Amino acid sequence: MTADVQSDARLLEHRRVWERKDVLRIVYSDYYRRMLELAPVGPLLDIGGGSAHVKNFRPDAVSLDILPFPGIDTVADAHQLPFPDGHFASIIMLDVLHHLDRPIVFLKEAARVLRKGGRLLMIEPGITPVSWWFYHFVHQEPVIMGQDPFAMTEKMSGKDPFDSNQAIPTLVFGRANGLKRLAAAVPEFEVKAVDWLSLLVYPLSGGFKSWCLVPEAAASPGIAFENRLPAVLRRTFGFRIFVALERR
C-alpha cells in the first residue's frame, strides 16, 4: 500500500469523532483490552495506528502508520517494517489487515519482527450471515468474497490507504481452508485463537460516523452480555473477528 505521506483530513475527522463519542470509546476500550490482555510483556508495536488511539491504553506502544499524525511514532509501509528481527514481544492491529495490498507478505514481515513466543493480535471486520448484509449494502468499504488473499500477483486494495476488502480477514482466518493455506504460507505463526464478537453495540454505535443509536449507559452492559453469548451465536451474528497468532 503506497500513499503520499501527508496529513489526511479523514484522520482529523476520526480524532474529532473519537473525542466526542463516548460509546465509540467504550467499544474500542473493549477491543484494546482483548488484545492487550494477550500481549506478552515487552515492546509492543501498534500497526495502522491511524489517529493514535492506542496511546490512551498503552502509552509506551510504538505506533506505526503509512500516514503521519500526532502520536504516530513511525511512518512506514506495513509490508516493509523498519525494525530489526525479533524486536517486539507483540503486535496489535485494529482494522488494518483488510486494507493491505499483500496480507500474506505482511504476515511474514510481522513474524520477522516478533520474538519467539511473541504474538500478533488483531481485530477486523468479520463477515457472518448477518454482518454481510450491513457491510455489503450499508458500509462504504467493499466486501469481495471471491478474492483470493493468498494470490501474490493480485492486489487486495488500491493505492489509497483507506481502500480495502473487508472480506480478507474472514477468508484467511474464518474458514478451514483459509487456515490450512495460512499454515502452509506462513508456518512461522501458530493460530492461538479465532473468535467472533460485536453483535449489536458496535454496529449501532455508528463507528466513526457522526450518528449513534446506543445510549452511553447501555454500551458497557451490552458488550458484556454479547461476550457471554455462545460461540455459535457470535459466529452467526457477529460483526468482528478477533485473531491471535503466536510466533513459533
UniProtKB/TrEMBL annotation:
Class of the enzyme per the UniProt entry, highest EC level: transferase
Organism this protein belongs to: Rhodoplanes azumiensis
Its EC number(s): 2.1.1.-
Keyword hit for Ribonucleoprotein: no
One Pfam family of this chain: Methyltransf_11
Keyword Methyltransferase part of the UniProt annotation: yes
InterPro entries: Methyltransf_11, SAM-dependent_MTases_sf
Keywords of the record: Methyltransferase, Transferase
Transmembrane segments: none
Protein name: Class I SAM-dependent methyltransferase
Listed GO biological process terms: methylation
Residues in Methyltransferase type domain copies: 75-121
MF terms in GO: methyltransferase activity
